[in-house]
Amino acid sequence: MRTRVAVLAVLLCIVVAGCSAPVSLPEPGEGDVETPGDATQPPRTGSTPDDGSDGDGEERDVRDAAWNDGSTPVPAVDNPYDEETLTVAVDDANVSAGRDVRPAVRDALDFWEANSRHYAGYAVDYRLLDEDSDTSDADLVVQFVDDIRDCGREQHVAGCAPYITRGPVDRPAVVRIKTGFDANSTTLVLEHELGHTLGLGHDDEPSEVMAGETMLTTQPKTDATDRELAWNHSTLSVYVDYGDADDRQATERQVAAALGYFEDGAEGTVPENVSFVRVDDPGRADVVVRFADDLQCGTRRGSCGRVEGYDPDGDGRLETYSKLEVTIANLDTEAVAWHVARWVGRGLSLDSDAEYPEPLRETTSAAERRTEWWR
User: CATH 3.40.390 in the chain, residues?
Assistant: First the structure.
């Protein structure tokens, strides 16, 4: 099962006069702001069987075992296993301590016990072996693994299973499930991969189980705002578009001052190994700063920011950042460094105002923001 991770974008702004973006910071004394909700996109995944044709919070929302989607039962076929009751062993050596994945396995087995005749063309029962049973004695082994690197032509998969349509079956048939998914997603991956062992492909019913793409979420992960560094690397690439800047050289000095402030540790508020490198392609940049003649956050003067990243646990909050885009419009050149630095701080997991170094807090006056506060 191929995996995709949710990509979220959060638009924010720092303004001189009123703004209606999700989060904003007005210039001192310029009034209140509105805070609409954030838009999110859920995680998605897909999958593949071994022939290439084509896993922790524990709240479980298990579908009814008897699945009635109104589809016509498939014609009866010969059982490739040549027996109706299949023994199943679970290899959970790679599962994190304290987590029991056997209930998810049982749920998936129950689903196919109730539905295999309808969708696969033959009835099957499963006997889940005890934890200390020898896996070599099983018809099927469900193996939880940290990663799956070889599964037909696909990469980045959540599960992998042999595509069994005829016998004799080489036993035990091994179903691999990637660890780290929450209970519901683990059950769904299990149902999907077990469907392959029953001869079902991605175009077969039930599509809610066998479709090549579906939603998957991981166990809860630490939010980006609670991480010391929310990027996958400590050297961030920066692209600057000076398009509508009044004085390019003076503006560049302001941008350089803001970046240098964080490279020096920003008074101990960011990791010491943070650094920046300039690039000439915005597509390759982690941080993009643009100087424009207007802003998308509903104000004429100030700055807007857009933070993008990944939300693998599906809680609607980013866990890792992948892009920070800053737009600045109609500001005095002397105020540019403060605005750039405020956004860079946001990208370096400074969330509440108290987490920022004093020169970058909301309480700084307009005059203070236009000084060489970084020295």
Answer: 7-42+223-369, 45-214
Give yes or no for a contact between 346 and 324, defined as CB atoms under 8 angstroms apart: yes
**What's the CA gap between 80 and 46, in Å, rounded?**
26
- Annotation: CATH topology of 45-214: Collagenase (Catalytic Domain) (3.40.390)
Q: Please indicate whether residue 174 or residue 46 has the higher confidence score (pLDDT).
A: 174
Q: Distance (Å, rounded) from C-alpha 240 to C-alpha 177?
A: 44
> pLDDT at position 218, please?
92
Would you tell me how many other CB atoms lie within 10 Å of the CB of residue 368? 14
> In the numeric block, which tokens belong to residue 208?
């809610």
DSSP strand pairing (159-160 vs 213-214): unpaired
Q: List the beta bridge partners of residue 159.
A: 177
For residue 355, pLDDT over 80 is answered with: yes
Domain 7-42+223-369 belongs in CATH node 3.40.390:
yes
10 Å CB burial of residue 146 (0-12, 13-18, 19+) is exposed
Considering the entire predicted model, what is its pTM? 0.71
Residue range 113-163, pLDDT digits in tens: 999 999 999 999 999 999 888 888 899 999 999 999 888 777 678 999 999
Contact between 19 and 298 under an 8 Å Cβ cutoff? The reply is: yes
**How far is 35 from 20, CA to CA, in rounded Å?**
7
Residue-averaged pLDDT of the chain = 83
Residue 58 pLDDT exceeds 80 = no
